[in-house]
Amino acid sequence: MAEWEIRKIRHDASDLVMRAVQPTLWLLIFGEVFTRVRAIPTGNVSYLAFMSPGILSQSVLFISIFAGIAIIWERDLGVIHKFLASPTPRGALVLGKALSTGIRSIPQAIVIYLLAFILGVHLNPNPLAILGVLFMALMGAACFSTLSLIIACLLKTRDRVMGIGQVITMPMFFASNAIYPIDIMPPWLQVIARVNPLTYVVDGIRMLMIGEGINATSLITDFGVIFVVTTVLIIIGAQLYPRIVQ
Fold first, then answer.
1. First vs last Cα of the chain: how many Å apart?
2. Quick count: other Cβ atoms within 10 Å of Cβ 117?
3. What is the per-residue pLDDT across 80-96, written as a single tens digit (0 to 9) for each?
4. 83: Cβ–Cβ under 8 A, 6 or more apart, which residues?
């Protein structure tokens, strides 16, 4: 299923180009303006450098949270029925979908990486750090796409999945450390931010991407939290996957 997604991207890359527009505007307009205003404390790095990993994570979230709509299209075309009739484990089907969305997020991450470099953000040149950023982007996309799949299995219509995706996307984005530090949030919002999976995606990518305040324990925690959340969601998704055709 992941290889199938690669072939679709190779034959039609227009979707990736269109999805790169929004994060580009965030960096070029929002990031450049607030770097000059200096209204948000970001320590020893510029606001644009602080924000770039957050926008990369935002792109991962946005490309993943509507992945469940594709499941409904496949159901309507009869593809899901063929998958379910095969001896393939349900968990493998859900994991394949998660990995396919993760693969789709990697070109997005590369585009934002290059744009941040062009805008003068000092990036960590360590090849292992770059691979770590791409791996975290893949894991984050797998996590959020599996959440979208679960929503699709429960709601079963494109309009409902689109509506729920729009409802939860912006709260997840703004209730994270993507565009401002957790420390400046009100206490109640800090609690939400610390249970928000996007926060850990942003934190891991930020440490690796700009090389500021890298802490092995925090990095392991970030990867560990996303791995555990994704695993739990895949298990739930495997149980709910047959419901999409009921």
1. 22
2. 13
3. 888 888 888 888 888 98
4. 93
Angle between helix 127-155 and helix 47-64 axes, rounded to 10 deg? 40
With 0-12 / 13-18 / 19 or more C-beta atoms within 10 angstroms meaning exposed / middle / buried, residue 193 is: buried
Pick from 205, 199, 185, 197: which is nearest to 227 by CA? Answer: 197
Find the length of the chain: 246
- What b-and-e string marks burial along 97-109, b requiring 16 or more CB atoms within 10 Å of the CB? bbbbbbbbbbbbb
Chain-centre distance of CA 96, in angstroms? 16
- Please tell me what DSSP assigns to residue 212: S
pTM here is: 0.88
Render pLDDT for 104-138 as a digit per residue (tens, 0 to 9): 888 888 888 888 888 888 888 889 999 999 999 99
Please give the single-letter amino acid code of residue 41.
Answer: P
Rg of the chain (C-alpha set): 18
237 with 93: CB under 8 angstroms?
A: no
